[in-house]
Amino acid sequence: MELQHFLLSLIVIYVSARVLGELAVRLGQPAVLGELLAGVLVGGSLLGLVEATQPLKLLGDIGVMLLLFEIGLESDLQSFLRVGKTAALVATIGVTAPFALGYLLGLALHMSQLQAVFVGATLTATSIAISARTLAELGRLKTAEGQIILGAAVIDDMLGLIVLSVVIGLAMSGTVSWLEVGWTAGLAVSLLIAAILVGTRYAHRISRLLSLMHVRGSLIVASVTFALTLGYLAGLLHLAPLVGAFAAGLVLARTEHQAHIGDAIKPVADVFVPIFFVLVGMAVNLRLLNPLQAENWPVLFLAGGLAIVAVLGKLAAGLGVAGGKTDRWVVGIGMLPRGEVGLIFAGTGLAQRIIGEGEYGAILLVVALTTFLSPILLKWRCARWRPLSPSA
Known about the structure:
Layout: H1 2-26, H2 31-42, H3 54-73, H4 84-108, H5 113-122, H6 128-137, H7 144-173, H8 178-201, H9 203-211, H10 218-236, H11 241-252, H12 258-282, H13 297-315, H14 328-334, H15 339-351, H16 357-384
């Protein structure tokens, strides 16, 4: 009966995720929002059809590692060199501003140091997928603004993963030690830099090794094994395994098999990733978001404050754009959506017991708001800004 219950849970997760994901896409929104709502629907807050058992959580953890591996695999760092300095400045502002504002807001609301650090960390990353899709639909992906946004989003994700690793390390130790923060951040940076250097210097050797494999499925199995191995090594270094999976993607992105690996990993990720996002949605306790109950007002007040901080912090990133030929507003708005990266942060924080259900629900509201808001504002601003020639 245990296997039957597990299979039934998977069936409910996949059906609800696909149905609501498809509905979200038809409404012009990312499928991830539909998967999140599917979790809210089938979780304990509403229908109670699925319980977040340990096997499901493990499958979700594999899914989020595959998602970060896929993001790393699609990150062509050299294509951003032309706007590298501007993208780096935009990303730096886009990380430090919302982090600092979120941290100060957390302290003002009498959170612990660790909780305040985590709240600030959840506001740092930018969703590459959502920004890229919206820009492509608007025909702005190859403009200067588009390249800056994508470059900054890649750097954002790297910095965000480093921050996430630091916060997880702090949660394990239970104290906020700036020496430990520096050590953990240094390890994460070293791992990512090593991945980039290995991918650049030894890409041809890795390609030659992969070319020796002829058995069906060898390429994708070897690639996933590589991602899991780096994730395991990251865990040994007390870093988030996500950093290792992302680093594995960066390495293989430099090989001639990148396109084949990318095509092969997508259906595998499509099996595991929805489980993670549905579980994230299931963790939402709607009762804590009921404005008619006075005890919920602190959570709603936190959500409102975080929403303001999240928007202002990313709009400030547009200040990193120099000159008048590039629209700073488009860049700032393009950095708004937190999307899947914000959900990863929120889910990890709840799993590590850094935050409670109330803070978790507030963060999810902010993630959903910024994800919905960005495409709408981008379409509005691009309609008012004159078209620019593609970046050289």
